[in-house]
C-alpha cells in the first residue's frame, strides 16, 4: 500500500508518521506542501504539528497550501485521507470534514494517554478491528471539537463519528472528556468515510518501548482492509 | 485603502479565553464585568480606490479565510 505524508512548515509528527507507516509495510513518501501533485498513493496523511505556527486559526493557512487542491481531488475521488491532530484541524478548514477544533475547554495544553472508543467499523480504517477501545496519545491545545446542532445530527445519522474519548471500560462521560469536545468526539469521517480526522496520535503507540501498541493495530488494520 | 475587519465568536459559542479574562477582571475588583468575548481585528490595505469594491473584496476574504463561519461572525467596519 502506497502512502504519502504531506509536510507543512511547522509539521512535527511527519517523521514519526513516516516511521510508523514504514514499520508496518507501507511504501511511504514525503511530499512538500508547495508541490502541486502527489505521487500515486492509496493513503494520504496530514500529520500533526503546528503548521504555520497555528496563525489565524489552527490549520487555516495550511488548508490553502498549493498541495491541498490535489488532496481534495484525491479525497473526492474516494482516496483515503487521514488527518491526525493538526491534520484533523487542516481537514476541517478545507471543508472536507465538518465542524472545527476549538481551544480546549480549560485552556490547557493536554499531553497524555487517553482511551478512545471506536464508534463505527463500516469503513476502511476500523473494519474488523479486534478491539473496541484503543489506548492512544493526545497532545494538543485546540482539540475541543465543535459543530452546529444540524451538523451533529447529520454526523450521528450517517455514523460519521469515528472515535470518542472514553474510560478504559468504554464509558463516555464528562469525566472521560479531556478537552470539552461535543459528545466526547475525538475523530470523525466525511460522508463517504474515506476521509478520517482524529486528534489522538496512533503513530505514537507503535512499539512496546513507547507507552503502548494500540496504534500498531490501527495501521495493521488499514493494511489488512486494503488487501 | 485600508479596510478594517472585526471577527468575533458567534453567540452561544463557548469562549474560554473571554471567560478567563472576565474572571480575572472580576478578581481585580472590576466587579461589574458580567461577560467578556474575545475577538480578532484586522487592518487590510487593499490596492483599490473604490470603497465599495474594496469592501466587497474584503468580504470575500472574510468568507474564504479570515473567519470560520462555523463559529465566527465578521463585521467590516
**Number of DSSP-assigned strands of chain A:** 11
Describe the main β-sheet of chain A briefly.
Answer: 9 strands, mixed
Number of strands of chain B: 3
CATH class of chain A: Alpha Beta
- Which value, in Å, is the CA radius of gyration of chain A? 16 Å
Count up the domains of chain A: 1
CATH architecture of chain B: 2-Layer Sandwich
Based on Cα principal axes, name the global outline of chain A: globular
By CATH, the superfamily of chain B comes out as Phosphoribosylformylglycinamidine synthase subunit PurS
Shape of chain B: elongated
- The structure class of chain A reads alpha/beta
In CATH, the topology of chain A is named Rossmann fold
Task: Report the span from N to C terminus of chain B.
Answer: 13 Å
Fraction in beta strands of chain A: 25-35%
Q: What oligomeric state do these chains adopt?
A: heterodimer
Helical amount among residues of chain B, as a percent range?
Answer: 25-40%
How would the blueprint of this fold be written?
The complex is a heterodimer of chains A (227) and B (77).
Chain A: E1 2-7, H1 14-23, E2 27-32, E3 43-46, H2 68-76, E4 80-84, H3 86-94, E5 100-102, E6 110-118, E7 133-140, E8 144-146, H4 149-157, E9 161-166, E10 185-189, E11 195-198, H5 214-226
Parallel strand pairs in A: 1-2, 1-3, 3-4, 4-11
Antiparallel strand pairs in A: 5-8, 6-7, 6-9, 9-10, 10-11
Chain B: E1 2-9, H1 16-27, E2 39-45, H2 51-66, E3 72-76
Antiparallel strand pairs in B: 1-2, 1-3
Amino acid at each position: 500500500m502506497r502512502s504519502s505524508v504531506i509536510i507543512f512548515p511547522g509539521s512535527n509528527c511527519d517523521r514519526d508518521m513516516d516511521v510508523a507507516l514504514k514499520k508496518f509495510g507501507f511504501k511511504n513518501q514525503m511530499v512538500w506542501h508547495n508541490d502541486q501533485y502527489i505521487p500515486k498513493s492509496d493513503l494520504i496523511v496530514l500529520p500533526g504539528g503546528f503548521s504555520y505556527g497555528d496563525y489565524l486559526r489552527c490549520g487555516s493557512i495550511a488548508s490553502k497550501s498549493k498541495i491541498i487542491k490535489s488532496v481534495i481531488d484525491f479525497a473526492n475521488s474516494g482516496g483515503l485521507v487521514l488527518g491526525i491532530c493538526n491534520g484533523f484541524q487542516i481537514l476541517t478548514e478545507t471543508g472536507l470534514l465538518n465542524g472545527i477544533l476549538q481551544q480546549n475547554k480549560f485552556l490547557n495544553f493536554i499531553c497524555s494517554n487517553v482511551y478512545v472508543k471506536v464508534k463505527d467499523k463500516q469503513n476502511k480504517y476500523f473494519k474488523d478491528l479486534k478491539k473496541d477501545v484503543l489506548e492512544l496519545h493526545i497532545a494538543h491545545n485546540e482539540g475541543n471539537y465543535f459543530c452546529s446542532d444540524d451538523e451533529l445530527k447529520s454526523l450521528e445519522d450517517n455514523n460519521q463519528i469515528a472515535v470518542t474519548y472514553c474510560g478504559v471500560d468504554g464509558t463516555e462521560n464528562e469525566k472521560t472528556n479531556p478537552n470539552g469536545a461535543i459528545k466526547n468526539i475525538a475523530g470523525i469521517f466525511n460522508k463517504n468515510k474515506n476521509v478520517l480526522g482524529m486528534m489522538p496520535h496512533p503513530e505514537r503507540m507503535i512499539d512496546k518501548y513507547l507507552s503502548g501498541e494500540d496504534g500498531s493495530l490501527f495501521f495493521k488494520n488499514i493494511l489488512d482492509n486494503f488487501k | 485603502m485600508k479596510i478594517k475587519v472585526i471577527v468575533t465568536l458567534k453567540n452561544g459559542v463557548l469562549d474560554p479565553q473571554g471567560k478567563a479574562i472576565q474572571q480575572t477582571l472580576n478578581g481585580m475588583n472590576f466587579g461589574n464585568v458580567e461577560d467578556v468575548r474575545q475577538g480578532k481585528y484586522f487592518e487590510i490595505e487593499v490596492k483599490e480606490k473604490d470603497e465599495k469594491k474594496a469592501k466587497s473584496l474584503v468580504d470575500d476574504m472574510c468568507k474564504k479565510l479570515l473567519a470560520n463561519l462555523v463559529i465566527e461572525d465578521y463585521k467590516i467596519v
